[in-house]
Amino acid sequence: MDDEETELRNPFPSPPSHYTRYTNHNLKLLGLLRERAGKDADLYAINQYEVLSDQTDVPDWPLAQLEKPRVDWILEEGHYTVFGDTWFIKETIPSLAELGGHQLYPADPSVDRRPALRSILRSLLVTYSKLLSALLLPPPTASSAQVEPEWKRHLEWINVLAQNIMAAANDLRPVQARGNLELMMRRQLELRREETKNIHSKCDALEAQLAQLRLTSQNAASHPSAPAARSGPPSTGMSGEGALLPQPGTVSLGDVLSWAEEVT
Questions:
Q1: Please, which residues bridge with residue 218 across strands?
Q2: Phi and psi of 91, rounded to 5°?
Q3: CA distance 194 to 212
Q4: Model confidence over 133-143: pLDDT tens digits?
Q5: Backbone phi and psi for residue 79, each to the nearest 5 degrees, phi listed first
Q6: How many distinct helices (H) and strands (E) make up the chain?
Q7: 143 contacts 151 by C-beta, under 8 angstroms
Q8: Where are the extended beta strands (E) located within the chain?
Q9: 209-218: long-range contacts (C-beta < 8 A, 24 or more apart)?
Q10: Which of the 8 DSSP states describes residue 235?
Q11: Beta carbons within 10 angstroms of residue 27's beta carbon
Q12: pLDDT digits (tens, 9 = 90+) for 196-229
């Protein structure tokens, strides 16, 4: 039995040892036993040797072990066992009382637990102070050796109080996760708003530059006989000593607009 438990808890367990019993012959005997005993009969309470007396090679172990797991029983119990571990159908966080501990705060999550937790914290501080006082007492004599030491009782009570604080904190993990998720989403929203604002500012600046270039091109087109400026077409921040300047009247409105589109 110990070997089976060890094998079940192995990270890579082997198939159960009774898998060899699922032969065609044994399954046929199981179906015949179920047919003769009745649909609602308890196969464990039936003598399979008497019911299957006309059959050969009836195993010495109960054929009822070959039946499929009862789903209704699993739903009724609320859990099932796989490879030595118990799994609950509905994933819930068990309370301290369900785990066998001494729960000192309300089990209902809708009830405010802060008064109970404050009392637990005060009790923890008082018990810790009493523990220190008990450790300063003289050692017990031979006559009082059978009496449980006072510090031991204080230590056990501190353990119970610490378990309650840890269990109450673990119950708040979903609330903490929701708070962290909300904070993260708000931060992402602020970053996207900031990036959108920067994009709009850049677009406004580009539109202003494009409007200025269009206005300059329109002014140049409306005065074709005016002498060309030293800087030539509207400046883009770059100039050179030997740059060739266009002759007056040779630059059309379409040329200036196409040049403005290339610059922007």
A1: none
A2: -70, 110
A3: 27
A4: 988 888 777 77
A5: -155, 165
A6: 8, 2
A7: no
A8: 79-82, 85-88
A9: 209/264, 210/260, 210/264, 213/260, 213/263, 213/264, 214/257, 214/260, 216/256, 217/253, 217/256, 217/257, 217/260, 218/253
A10: P
A11: 13
A12: 999 999 999 999 999 998 888 888 887 765 454 4
Task: In whole angstroms, give the CA distance from residue 95 to residue 107.
Answer: 7
* C-alpha closest to that of 244 among 258, 262, 230, 256: 230
Taking residue 192's Cβ as centre, other Cβ atoms within 10 Å add up to 10
Structure tokens at 197: 């604002």
Using alpha carbons, select from 117, 122, 153 the residue that is nearest to residue 135.
153
Q: What are the backbone dihedrals phi and psi of residue 81, each rounded to the nearest 5 degrees, phi first? A: -115, 130
Q: pTM value?
A: 0.44
Tokens of 7: 């094998």
165's CB contacts (< 8 A; 6+ apart) are 117, 120, 121, 124
Q: Which tokens is 229 given?
A: 């400026």
Helix axes 150-171, 173-222, angle to 10 degrees: 40
Burial of 130: CB neighbours in 10 Å, binned 0-12, 13-18, 19+: middle
